[in-house]
Design brief:
With 152 residues, the chain is mostly helical. It is built from eight helices and no strands.
Amino acid sequence: MFALVLSEYADVEVNAAHAANLLLVHDIVEIDAGDAPIHASGVSKTELEPAERKAAERIFGLLPAEQAARLRDMWLEFDAGQSAEARFTKALDRLQPLLLNIKVGGGTWRENGVTEQEVVERYGPAIKRGSTTLWHAARGLIRAHVDGTPSR
């Protein structure tokens, strides 16, 4: 839904349906492999990558070859982050947990002792790369959260 609703805020024109598909394929692999907050202690990207590759091979291996190749290509497109849609979907992939953490008063940020600067450094580049407009809005929400201003 994020891709369909927020695609007008991408820095360049994106195909919202393709972006939604990239997010779905990305998420189905994460569901199988497991996902961890980017700031959770004890979980490294180097540990998650092999698990995600194995999950992708398993899931896509259940499908007919042509369909498996198409979905694998979408998964790789998201991961590479080179196309306009992939940059935008990576922005949305970072934006969603940011919004959830703000909505619940800090959530996993508070649990993991994440500072405002760490939030900006960990979420900002990916969001900004796909949508400077969404990053400016998110940055304002982060600032309001830190200042104790209620979010809407």
